[in-house]
Amino acid sequence: MIVIQDVMPLREAIHTRRRKDEAVAFVPTMGNLHAGHLDLVRVAGERGSAVVVSIYVNPLQFGQHEDLDNYPRTLEADKAELQKYNIDILFVPDDRTMYPRGVEEGEYRPGHFVGVATVVNRLFNIVQPDIAVFGKKDYQQLVIIRRMVSDLAMPVEVIGADTVRERDGLALSSRNRYLSAQQRAVAPGIYRTLREARDALQRTKVDRSKIETEGYRKLVDLGFSPDYFKVRRQEDLGDPDPQDRSLVILTAARLGEARLIDNMEVELRRQ
Fold it and tell me: CATH 3.30.1300.10: which residues of the chain?
């Protein structure tokens, strides 16, 4: 594994691999790697013959009162984990590399998902991968990146990897560290609530808005402060029509200092 900080050495290293007809698979991360990130690296290794991982804490993905300064930077530990997966290149750019004219150049379109699209667009242009792997845990991010790739006609295959969970169902996340022991015992309730909503959708012709209301109420009863609990189309996150069969249930809910996101795909039987 070679570690690269600048654009030109990265492109030269990738060009060397392309001359050997190697397909380049890319996994962008913000570091503080856990088993969920490493599963994306595993998938990338299965799909590409050369694997590039980036670590960059993107300031455009943090809101005004969010935890950019406190986001854990664990580069040495991350390197040690990535060594086990025999990746080819670790790209660790700084702010000057990613935003040569300053971070403010993206602030005319504020918001988390705009920040995601901005940094992923830059990374795709720098790395020029054939394949890019993202986790399904952040389903909205995955849909936005796929739409961006389609809209800009980028020659990148975007792969969604299944969410990696603890044994009790809690989705792995760097933000789980904010949970107290008592909150950690409650947190898997978000997964149980999603499963119950999925079962209800598959079992009956119940009004989807009723399932949304019931899921929201269950989270409140468990002690969460939900931002939303919604049923949407998988393809574009639009409001589903009666004929839609590929759905996804999405939720975000606060538990203490942690904001947990999760989702569950649902395939309905054809009428």
Answer: 174-267
Task: List, for residues 185-229, the tens digit of each pLDDT value.
Answer: 999 999 999 999 999 998 877 788 999 999 999 999 999 999 999
* HEC-encoded secondary structure of 66-104: CCCCCCCCCHHHHHHHHHCCCCCEEECCCHHHHCCCCHH
Tokens 């012709």 -> residue: 205
User: Strand 258-267 and strand 246-255: pairing?
Assistant: antiparallel
When the candidates are 3.40.640.10, 3.30.1300.10, 3.40.50.300, 1.10.10.10, the CATH number that belongs to 174-267 is: 3.30.1300.10
**Own/partner long-range contacts of 75-80 (Cβ < 8 Å, ≥24 apart):** 75/31, 77/33, 78/31, 78/32, 78/33, 79/1, 79/3
Tokens 């935003």 — which residue?
A: 99
Of these residues, 34, 37, 65, 112, which one is catalytic?
37
Is 37 labeled as catalytic in the residue annotation?
yes
> Chain-centre distance of CA 8, in angstroms?
27
Q: 208, 240 in Cβ contact below 8 A?
A: yes
Residue type, 136: K
Q: Does CATH number 3.30.310.50 belong to domain 2-161?
A: no
Separation of alpha carbons 146 and 80, rounded Å: 31
Average pLDDT over every residue of 147-176: 95
Read off φ and ψ for residue 29, nearest 5 degrees.
-140, 170
Residue with tokens 């809209």: 151
Residues of the chain with CATH 3.40.50.620: 2-161
